[in-house]
Design a protein that fits this description.
Number of domains: 1
Distance between the termini: 10 Å
Number of helices: 14
Largest sheet: none
Order of helices and strands: HHHHHHHHHHHHHH
CATH architecture: Up-down Bundle
Strand content: under 5%
CATH topology: Na+/H+ antiporter like fold
Mean pLDDT: 85
Shape: globular
CATH class: Mainly Alpha
Structural class: mainly alpha
Radius of gyration: 18 Å
């Protein structure tokens, strides 16, 4: 079984980082700093983090062990895209980008990796890296398009997005097993490791403008239910239909059950699409996941 104390510690770490951003924004940090931090994360830190996530040594043994996780992860993304179009038809149009992107983007990296490692050891870490490949591709293509107000020349705009470019570069490095020079790889790794701390700091800064009552409303609870209940249940059904082995099933279901990813709030801030609502989605779903993640691990 998963170490619940460790899970609570991880989620507590997220909230401590957010609280730091909250109080710093209230006391000393300006709008200009918040805007600059948003651009820094989107244009440098996140692309480096994405390239890091694709640095997997591919071989026949890995592909054999992870093939079902990869296939099912793509299937989960397809279900997520359909769910994003079906569940939010009656929601406020201004909140749709965050609701839809939050449905596609789970916090399967920061929270998912240690949970999978706690359940399945090194194999869990490996399966998490494979699971994240389809999610990275979808969230930085279809997902990013949700925030684009101007739909003309959308494909060209997406290709100019540094995170999309990072996905393309990362996939090329992974598929062709191209090693980066040590100095360049070390620099990319150093920037990429800043992602969790700085992204949670930014989310806390955005949250400093939100009233407590705004963290819970019907639309946020609906997004949390889709992210934490419907999608894991759908992934479990897919695994059962495909007669997948227990470890692969567990990895797919647990990683799908993670809360809304913090990237949702960063993109909402960058594109000025109601970032306060996006932060509420991230925070509320993360709190609720403290109850739902252990339930999913016990059901497997």
């Amino acid at each position: 079984m998963i170490d619940l104390a460790h899970l609570l510690s991880l989620q507590g770490q997220l909230f401590l980082l957010m609280l730091t951003g909250f109080f710093l924004r209230r006391r000393m940090l300006s709008d200009a700093f918040q805007s600059g931090l948003t651009d820094l994360l989107i244009n440098l830190i996140l692309p480096c983090n994405i390239i890091m996530s694709f640095q997997i040594e591919m071989n026949a043994a890995l592909l054999q062990a992870a093939k079902w996780v990869l296939i099912l992860s793509f299937a989960v993304q397809l279900v997520s895209i359909v769910a994003a179009e079906l569940f939010y038809r009656r929601c406020d149009e201004g909140n749709l980008p965050s609701l839809k992107f939050g449905t596609l983007c789970a916090n399967s990296g920061f929270l998912g990796t240690p949970v999978a490692e706690g359940l399945w050891g090194a194999q869990g870490v490996l399966l998490t890296a494979v699971y994240l490949i389809p999610q990275r591709i979808v969230m930085w293509s279809i997902g990013t398009s949700y925030f684009q107000k101007e739909k003309s020349n959308l494909a060209l705009k997406l290709l100019k997005n540094p995170c999309i470019d990072a996905v393309i570069i990362g996939m090329a490095l992974m598929v062709f097993q191209i090693p980066l020079p040590i100095v360049l790889n070390s620099a990319i790794s150093a920037f990429g490791k800043c992602n969790t701390g700085l992204s949670m700091l930014l989310i806390g800064m955005i949250a400093s403008h939100i009233h407590l009552r705004d963290f819970i409303n019907r639309e946020i609870l609906l997004c949390s239910a889709v992210r934490l209940v419907f999608l894991p249940l759908a992934s479990l059904a897919l695994c059962r239909l495909a007669h997948v082995d227990a470890v692969s099933t567990g990895a797919v279901v647990v990683l799908t059950s993670m809360p809304v990813g913090g990237i949702t709030a960063m993109l909402a801030a960058k594109y000025c699409r109601n970032p306060e609502f996006a932060v509420s989605c991230v925070a509320t779903s993360t709190v609720l996941s403290m109850a739902t993640i252990p339930v999913w691990t016990m059901l497997l």
